[in-house]
Write a structure and sequence with these properties.
The complex is a heterodimer of chains A (323) and B (241).
Chain A lengths: L2 H19 L2 H26 L8 H18 L3 H25 L5 H19 L10 E2 L17 H24 L1 H11 L1 H6 L4 H27 L1 E2 L1 H4 L2 H14 L6 H22 L7 H16 L4 H8 L6
Antiparallel strand pairs in A: 1-2
Chain B lengths: L1 E12 L2 E12 L3 E5 L6 H9 L6 E6 L2 E2 L5 H7 L1 E3 L12 H10 L5 H14 L15 H14 L4 E5 L7 H18 L2 E5 L3 H7 L2 E6 L2 E6 L1 H6 L1 H8 L6
Parallel strand pairs in B: 3-8, 3-9, 6-7, 7-8
Antiparallel strand pairs in B: 1-2, 1-4, 4-5, 9-10
Helix pairs in contact in B: 3-4, 3-5, 4-5
Classes of the chains: A mainly alpha (323), B alpha/beta (241).
């Protein structure tokens, strides 16, 4: 057991025991941290591992959320079935975007623009889709808050907390295994130098599409969680580009391409921004947009002083693997 | 028997004819040097063989199969490894991981690939640096890493694009030893493009001279340096006097 294994086990134990020690508000903040840790890890597969910049990951959150949400809303079928529809739709979308871009050699900034375009026109499309409520939104039935109805994924906040804890732990293990596998090596090679990767026999087109497919599938699951946790979905909000930015800030600040970076980044951002909001409220101040300014400042500081993110620097100090 | 045959290959870039009707063949087990003045079309031919460009006409036959028009990864899968003139290490990965990426293609598992990578690094005197990030290597080491990575794909033909350029004479001699050994002990066929004549003369068993996109002379090093056409293109016409 290395230091990092022990640290991870300790962290997991703390998170498992957390609900016993904190109140409802703190638990909801913790759930939010884990949600961004999960989506950050999903995005990190594409950008951090394979080097493909997506600025439109709200697309997969939104489509995943709407798919599972609509199936529940219209047919009363719970998310355990809806999940697969959500994953399937998002993978199809991701593969379509990847296919279009990579087949025609679109990469870098232009690929990022393409991902924004897809998220944006899907937003506009959902605004005109009456089946899911259009711009007026879709509202899922809010069930009793005290019983655990696992079949329909309705229950108290505690259930959602453990669900998102399970999801982000699963994502962590998946990423750990992937990075040590053939796929991880190939993705990193493509990220570092695509031409050299191809010269070493890697079908870069196929592996890039794989990265997009996996990342979109993981993000779709986050969307399903989102739908059943918040119970209301508006195209204007869920597909918004600011949602995509929120997803990517965690891994960028924590450490791109690392295993622990997305988790650390999500914790730093969510805890500090919530802390600032709380502090200002306590002081009786109300400053609109303070969260955005805060994100901007943190990003600026990290880019200036820790260009590889917080985790690689911290890991060095703690004598752990910088992964 | 020739392992690689380049037959009447031509390639133009927007009207500029970089290669016109170039033909040569590399026998199995040979070390073949392709030389020529700047702009002769050496790197273009190299990239056509490696699958980066599709030729406008002509054939590339490797081991009896036509390979022109294949993608670079398919050319690699066919058994041709290459290095880049401007080195392209996976800068963020360790030296060992760089070579593992190359070895994975013909390995069943990552641990198999690791074993192969370690033995190749030892062979190229890079074993002590295997845990360093590739970005920290000096130029000679980066060149060696290029070779190690290409060798890890276990090619039957190794394409070397100016792998000696920028090396000091002693470093150059070390590289020459490595290639000689690979050729002798493993039977690896090597096609090298090189400006450093010291290396070409020391290594190559056969040489092709490229000038204005055509192969104007072929033969052993001793034959080629006496060829009047070669002297003309390298030194100018006055030498005839």
């Amino acid at each position: 057991m290395s230091r990092s294994h022990i640290a991870l086990a300790a962290l997991l134990l703390i998170l498992l025991a957390l609900p016993a020690f904190v109140g409802a508000y703190a638990l909801s903040v913790a759930a939010l941290v884990l949600y961004f840790a999960y989506t950050g890890q999903a995005w990190n597969v594409m950008m951090g591992f394979a080097g493909q910049l997506s600025l439109g990951h709200s697309l997969y959150v939104g489509v995943g959320a709407y798919a599972a949400g609509a199936i529940f809303f219209h047919y009363g079928i719970g998310p355990w079935a809806g999940l697969w529809v959500a994953i399937l739709l998002c993978v199809l979308l991701g593969v379509a975007i990847g296919f279009l871009a990579f087949r025609f050699g679109i990469s870098g900034v232009y690929f990022a623009l393409l991902t924004i375009a897809f998220a944006e026109f899907t937003r506009i499309g959902f605004d005109h889709l009456d089946w899911v409520g259009g711009p007026g939104g879709m509202f899922l039935r809010v069930a009793q808050r005290d019983t655990w109805d696992i079949a329909n994924f309705r229950g108290p906040p505690l259930m959602y907390y453990y669900a998102i804890l399970g999801l982000s732990s699963f994502a962590f293990i998946l990423c750990y295994v992937l990075l040590k596998s053939k796929a991880g090596y190939y993705w990193q090679a493509i990220r570092e130098n695509e031409e050299a990767a191809q010269a070493l026999g890697i079908n870069t087109f196929r592996w890039k599409v794989c990265a997009v497919a996996l990342s979109s599938a993981m993000t779709a699951v986050a969307g399903v969680f989102f739908a059943f946790y918040y119970n209301n979905l508006f195209p204007e909000q869920i597909f918004n580009i600011s949602r995509s930015i929120e997803i990517i800030l965690g891994p960028i600040i924590g450490g791109l391409g690392t295993l622990f970076g997305p988790i650390l980044g999500a914790a730093v951002l969510t805890l500090l921004s919530d802390g600032i909001t709380e502090l200002l409220a306590a002081l009786g101040l109300e400053i609109p947009g303070v969260k955005q300014v805060f994100y901007g400042v943190v990003l600026l500081l990290v880019v200036m002083f820790l260009p590889n993110g917080i985790w690689p620097a911290l890991a060095k100090k703690l004598r752990m693997e910088s992964r | 028997m020739s392992l690689l045959r380049v037959v009447n290959v031509a390639k133009s870039f927007r009207g500029l004819r970089a290669v016109r009707a170039a033909s040569f063949s590399v026998p199995q087990g040979d070390i073949y040097g392709l030389i020529g003045p700047n702009g002769a079309g050496k790197t273009t031919i190299f990239n056509i063989i490696a699958g980066v460009y599709t030729p406008d006409s002509g054939e590339i036959v490797f081991d009896g199969k036509r390979i022109q028009g294949l993608r670079p990864d398919q050319v690699c899968a066919a058994g041709i490894g290459r290095t880049f003139q401007i080195v392209k290490p996976f800068a963020g990965l360790s030296v060992l991981d760089n070579v593992i990426v190359g070895a994975l293609h013909r390995s069943r598992s990552v641990s198999d690939a690791r074993q192969i990578a370690i033995s190749i690094l030892e062979r190229l005197n890079l074993a002590q640096k295997s845990t360093l990030p590739a970005s920290s290597l000096t130029l000679p080491d980066r060149k060696r890493l290029e070779v190690a990575r290409a060798l890890a794909t276990r090619p039957r033909l190794l394409l070397l694009d100016e792998v000696m350029a920028g090396l000091r004479p002693t470093e150059c001699d070390q590289m020459i030893q490595v290639f000689r050994e690979l050729n002798r002990a493993d039977g690896l066929t090597i096609l090298l493009i090189e400006h450093v004549m010291r290396a070409v003369m020391a290594l190559a068993k056969h040489i092709g001279v490229l000038h204005h996109g055509e192969v104007i002379a072929r033969g052993t090093p001793a034959e080629v340096v006496r060829d009047p056409a070669v002297l003309e293109c390298y030194l100018g016409e006055e030498t005839r006097v």
